[in-house]
Amino acid sequence: MDEATQKSVLSDATVKEAMRVQVLSLSAASPINHGIRQLIKYKSNAFLVNGEGGAPVGVVSKTDIIGAYYAGLPIESPLGDIMVSPPMFCSPGDSLESALDTMRSQRIYRLYVRNEASNEVVGALAYPDIVGLLYGYCRSCDRSVMNRKKNRAEDPDEMRIRVKDVMTESVVWSHDDDNLSQIMEELSEHRCGAVLIRNRSRRPISVISKTDLILAYARGIQSEAPARNVLASSRVISCQDSTFLEDAIRKMILSDLQRLFAWSEIPENIVGVISLSDAARVRSGSCHACISSRIRVE
User: Which residues belong to any copy of the CBS domain (predicted)?
Assistant: First the structure.
């Protein structure tokens, strides 16, 4: 592959191309339970917090709400008590690579997009948005596996990235009789979005995600309650570790999933987890023909 071909697909991409224009915001005086309702209603992971003058002064994420749950804060506590300040911004015309560099160096999951002329917040950018953009590039690429029928001779399966090439192999486990506080500690320690739950026979039976925990908080379930009390809605959604990464990305995007667990040989043998953030760590999620290798999630 010559030097001209080895150009990142993101080299000319801007934040405006990937950002989502829907921006959630609440007043700093609003209670935590209002924030939970917003996150669930709009299937979001965070929202801006506005001060008295309406200007953004902080961000509250699911992680922050779980921290309040773990600390035993009343759910009527104001969002200003748990927000992270200040918000981090970029501009619509910024290069996507520079935004990724900021997200990586600041160890944050999202940036808010502010119009420099009006100072108005016009969008938000998170890793799933970037994966969605790259997926679009992949669909239109001549060497994409989407076009493998017409390019079969030039696009062998050996070029295609599989889930096992990208997945996180250290799966965080808990038991169904562990209490929710222990689950929250595991999420915090391993900086992950969900914990796989197994019974005492070591069989995976469910998943507890951050969403499940904030819903438990909203329902008044005590943090010392066993994990089995919140398992009903979260089944283990998985794929084989040899699945092509593009197929896994398609499943996550179309099914509005943040992650898939990966199994080897039999579905009960969970060996890893693949998330949209993992997918953002490599190329476009299709094949080795695409070399946007500057994408990193640390």
Answer: 19-75, 83-143, 167-223, 232-290
For the chain, give the mean pLDDT.
83
Q: Which residues contact 57 (CB under 8 A, 6 or more apart)?
A: 28, 49, 50, 51, 80, 83, 85, 86, 87
How far, in whole angstroms, is CA 26 from its chain's centroid? 22
- Residue 239's SS3 state is strand
Q: How far apart are CA 258 and CA 275, in angstroms?
A: 6
Q: How far is CA 129 from CA 4, 34, 106, 111, 297, in A?
A: 27, 25, 18, 11, 14
User: DSSP string covering 124-169, please?
Assistant: EEEHHHHHHHHHHHHHH-TTSGGGTTTTTTTS-GGGB-BHHHHSB-
**Residue 180 · residue 172 · CB < 8 Å:** no
Looking at residue 208, its amino acid is I
Query: Rounded distance, CA 92 to CA 216, Å?
Result: 37
CA–CA distance, 49 with 64 (Å, rounded to integer): 12
3-state SS class at 186: helix
Share of the chain above pLDDT 70, in %: 81
Domains of the chain and any CATH numbers: 15-126 (3.10.580.10), 162-279 (3.10.580.10)
Please report which confidence band the pLDDT of residue 119 belongs to, taking 50, 70 and 90 as the band edges: confident
- Helix (H, G, I), strand (E, B), or coil: what is residue 49? strand
For residue 127, the one-letter residue type is Y
Judge whether 85 and 116 are in contact, CB under 8 Å: no
Joined tokens for residue 127: 């890793």
Q: Supply the pLDDT for residue 9.
A: 56
Helix, strand, coil shares of the chain, percent, nearest 5, are: 35, 25, 45
**Type of residue at 257:** L
